[in-house]
Design goal:
- This protein is α/β, with parallel strands linked by helices and about 325 residues long.
- It is built from twelve helices and nine strands.
Length: about 325
């Protein structure tokens, strides 16, 4: 089977792509963004999890309300990107499989930064109702749920605030389990990530991360964290952020290649097994490397994996199979 045939036959799913907000462009047309539907079609990228991202801000009632409103407006916009025919909105693993079988592009939604919840757990149910499949507990900066891997001293953050997950964070994880929302531990401190792994009834996912063993960066997961994911059935999605993949020269932008992504995939696979590793880009949120600079170049990732000896089955697990397993686990566990 040729590399091209493997890529064409694979359900390719990018689990973390940001959108511009406010004033997002029409994604049905060619845009200046890394991801739009024409670029997806050219690159054989069949589905994308578009992100309702909310930047960290002050933790007062007004700021939390504004953050919630932003997240919910973004979720509604993402849902509106689907037309029900050529582009289907998918909020379940079964819907993704059905869209793939029909040859339709998949539009999927998630929320990045539990800050948008404030202290109101009921927002999680609304987000799930609006179609979100996961929530990233933090972004850069501590919030009411957990400590971040990258504190924000400009917002008054100490190096550590909660010692991992807060009591509210534990409640949020339980509520996400109840609703069928995956828990995304990207951006969370190591203690918070390990707390979430222990607290969740469903395997957790780091939707956009890399391996600290290859690149010491606060956003990357170390081997202890990888082992915790393996032990609980979780998943590390290796992402295309150059500064997570390799150390750059001082004073210059970091440049990475698609081969660097494969290096991190190789490390994670050797450490915890193919069933616990996946792929994402973080396009339009800082992601992009030489060889995979936008969705139109997605076949290059498959080509590099095949060159390294990954067969069609393994490529399928990395692109979507493992992530869909977690989605199904979350759906099955929901009450």
């Amino acid at each position: 089977m040729s590399t091209e045939a493997i890529h064409a036959a694979t359900l390719t799913l990018d689990t973390h792509v940001d959108i511009r907000w406010p004033d997002p462009p029409d994604a049905t047309q060619e845009t200046d963004r890394c991801v739009d539907f024409p670029k997806m079609a050219r690159g054989g990228l069949k589905g994308v999890v578009f992100i309702a991202y909310v930047p960290q801000g002050r933790r007062d009632d007004a700021s939390h309300a504004a953050a919630s409103a932003r997240a919910e407006a973004m979720l509604r916009h993402i849902r509106g990107r689907a037309d029900g025919a050529m582009r289907r909105f998918c909020a379940s693993a079964a819907a993704i499989a059905a869209a793939d079988a029909a040859g339709a592009q998949m539009v999927i939604a998630a929320v990045e930064n539990g800050y948008a919840m404030g202290r109101d757990l009921s927002r999680l149910a609304l987000w799930r109702e609006l179609g979100a499949i996961y929530v990233t507990l933090t972004h850069n900066g501590h919030n009411a749920l957990a400590d971040s891997a990258i504190p924000r001293p400009d917002l008054g953050d100490p190096p550590e605030e909660h010692g991992g997950l807060s009591p509210l964070g534990r409640q949020a994880v339980a509520e996400m389990n109840r609703l069928g929302l995956l828990v995304d531990v990207s951006h969370v401190s190591k203690k918070g990530m390990l707390d979430a792994v222990a607290a969740s009834r469903v395997p957790v996912v780091a939707t956009h991360t890399c391996c600290a063993a290859l690149r010491a960066h606060p956003r990357n997961v170390d081997d202890e964290q990888l082992d915790a994911l393996r032990a609980t059935g979780g998943l590390a999605q290796i992402t295309a952020v150059a500064s997570f993949l390799r150390e750059g020269e001082k004073g210059r932008p970091t440049v990475a290649h698609v081969s660097d992504i494969a290096d991190h995939v190789d490390h994670a696979v050797k450490r915890i097994g193919i069933q616990h590793v996946g792929l994402s880009s973080d396009f339009d949120g800082g992601g992009g490397v030489l060889g995979w600079a936008n969705a139109a170049e997605s076949a290059a990732v498959t080509a590099e994996l095949v060159r390294r000896g990954y067969d069609a089955g393994a490529v399928g697990l990395l692109w979507s199979g493992n992530f869909l397993r977690l989605m199904r686990a979350a759906e099955d566990a929901a009450s």
